[in-house]
Amino acid sequence: MAAPSPNDSPPAPAGKSIPRYELITLGDELLLGLTANSHLAWIGAQLGRRGVLLGRNVTITDEAPAIAAQFRESWARADVVITTGGLGPTCDDRTREVVAEILGQELVFDPEIMRAIEERFAKFNRPCTPNNRRQAFKFSRGEVLPNPNGTAPGLWAEQDGKVLVMLPGPPNELQPMFTDQVLPRLAQLGLVSDQEGYLQLRTAGVGESMLETRFQPVFARYPGLGVAYCAHQWQVDCRISSPDGRHPRATLQQIAAECAALLGDDFVCFGQDNLAKVAADLLRNSGRTLAVAESCTGGLLANSFTDICGASKFFMGGIVSYSNDSKTLLLDCPECLLSQHGAVSAECAVAMASGVAERLSADYGLAITGYAGPAAGHCCDDSAVGTIYIGLHSPLGDWSKKLVCPGARHPVKLRAVTAAIDWLRREVARELRRAAAPLAN
Amino acid sequence: MAAPSPNDSPPAPAGKSIPRYELITLGDELLLGLTANSHLAWIGAQLGRRGVLLGRNVTITDEAPAIAAQFRESWARADVVITTGGLGPTCDDRTREVVAEILGQELVFDPEIMRAIEERFAKFNRPCTPNNRRQAFKFSRGEVLPNPNGTAPGLWAEQDGKVLVMLPGPPNELQPMFTDQVLPRLAQLGLVSDQEGYLQLRTAGVGESMLETRFQPVFARYPGLGVAYCAHQWQVDCRISSPDGRHPRATLQQIAAECAALLGDDFVCFGQDNLAKVAADLLRNSGRTLAVAESCTGGLLANSFTDICGASKFFMGGIVSYSNDSKTLLLDCPECLLSQHGAVSAECAVAMASGVAERLSADYGLAITGYAGPAAGHCCDDSAVGTIYIGLHSPLGDWSKKLVCPGARHPVKLRAVTAAIDWLRREVARELRRAAAPLAN
Known about the structure:
Two copies of one chain form a homodimer. Chain A is 39% helix and 22% strand.
């Protein structure tokens, strides 16, 4: 840590008052929609799991006056200010200079940083151009957060009873730096806690207004309860919290359990697991395996399962059958079935599901066939767009389901995959219940 | 349009001064990282393509005081304020009320909206609970933006020479409303133009600092040129603009063409197409077809191509071979090859690429095999994580490439897919050049 100077004082401990966090994400490319602002979701989740609700996220342009105005405002309001981006080697990277001036900090050249940058270029056999030198400056009263995955290091400063954290823009550089360096430092200063500030229930198959109507009688018994709903893709999340602290965590857990019991299979999980993760856990718990076949969703279904760590324990593989030929060749769909019912049909969905399960010796086969349609605003129009059939082969039998979800290509794919995985989740749960109580269900 | 009242005046025409846009995205779920803020990227891109650089995006909590403070500040600074979220039926949807009070607007019940909500519930055979009535209120001096895909309508108001647009949170509801209703209204008021305010070059395979070093001599000949760089996943984008208007669009195009020529195959495209779209266009131009096989990327490679509208024209299908058995069964990888070299090997990558091309009668076969590793911070550690082999079968021959990209599961998958598609892009371009000038290359 740098030697303390007269106007440096440690941040206020997180005693009674909750520290206020603000996140400033920099870059015209974010405002032009050329890059998604993944930092908000990622940093927000990291802080949320440590009891901190990020107070605000502001995305601004790369222009020096915009950076200066926003940084001044956020620094005045917040206890912790985190910035992302604008630390790189090129002419539009101005954050370091602008912030240093506002804080009255000098930027000093650090040969240690320069050596790390040069070593990195040498390792990848690339020449280190002179503009990289810009990244080797740090605050005179501050610290360096080394960047093991890139050239621009992060910067840390404590001043005016506040903390400033500056991180580079690329997520693969920022994320390990935040987890390994920033969070431990914030914990040491008492600025994060060790548990979430809320409890979340995830649900599927119930609309937002109906969910509130069903939960309301429970919530009414607990005055002062914080309640929030969030609808997304076939699902609604409900978060409960105790903003004034009158309901301890055990009470929140009891309320959440009561709500979950009200919903039956429409309850998905507590916390943040997605439907694929919940279905995967059920499959692993029952020792069952899965294979998938898909046409219009084109790999998105398989990808949802292979995003899960340890997927090879239950996931046997997938086939993206984008033509009739591939359905016959790879999935043994009979040609006569295809010519009689067409590739977008209940019959084909079932044949694909049982075909892929048999080919890959899986217990469950899940299949999607349909018309995903054009990308938003492009290409041809088709009245059949959004017509989807889902096929499910399971130890309890074979079924199909029809889904109509008109829209642009990507949302239709996402909706179809979500519906298919939710159906699988319910069926595996049903089989597990049957196994546990063979006569009761 | 509502009858004008004394303090309503039309917004200033977008003559000399550029209108300032601010976007307020509401929702604790965004700040907690439970939902990605897709509105910034989507609305930012829509405006960017119409010559508007969004001035700022602020994400705030659902609390009434936070909404009020932010709305007041943004309304004072901007010409157009767009809000998303907080218009739904539940207790945490407070935006409508808070904004109405600040603007001195009354909220009036609109039986027309209520009827549309009731019809929507009837159509889906769901009961319409009383809390839905909250969504049927509009500003007394303002208009309703109907929502064909959900219950909460949008609101539009012109006041104090400014425009307010309030939209519901779910992207599948917001996006068509923005395209079909909001943009035409903004165009009518002269608040958007009909072309982009910048030119973008996408590049692959060159680092950010090297790219600036190579472009600098060109840019130095054009004083006042606006230049910005953005690095992401194996690629760097460079945007050029003329902030003070001294360089007409034709000059920007000439500068961009000169830069592109400097780069050879490291130049990907002008504009916003991704690598898969560029590779797909090359395949379509040459009348070639593609099939893919993947293990560790688990469907993400196939999904990148099937996200492209009209993919069935060139994409024959894909196989997610998540086990050795499936590599033998579905891709004809010889068992002896797998036992001698292992599934993560150059030999296996080539066998997968040629196997899938043959199975699906495709001209090109692209394959990925490797260790994607655990999800961030979870599961086992493995020194082999991030070791990836890419196999390519093409009319010019069969090759493999090794890639080492340590990191968390999702970034490794993304990096592997990006590298594979970039390689395919270069090879198809090479074949096209050979076909055009068989003796020259």
